[in-house]
Design a protein that fits this description.
58 residues, mainly alpha, elongated
């Protein structure tokens, strides 16, 4: 996995988790939903990069 893509995925996951927790704590459903979406986007990016690495010829 390319280091920059891996870092981007981890950043999205972390930002999403923070938004999700803060949104839940203050009762802001919109912020919570945005956090869940961003966290999922990071998860998908990680999975995509791992799949690319798995099929890449060595």
């Amino acid at each position: 996995m390319a280091a920059d893509k891996k870092a981007q995925a981890k950043g999205e996951q972390a930002k999403g988790k923070v938004k999700k927790v803060v949104g839940g704590a203050v009762g802001n459903e919109s912020l919570k939903a945005k956090g869940e979406a961003e966290e999922s986007k990071g998860d998908l990016r990680t999975a995509k990069e791992k799949a690319k690495d798995a099929i890449k010829p060595k």
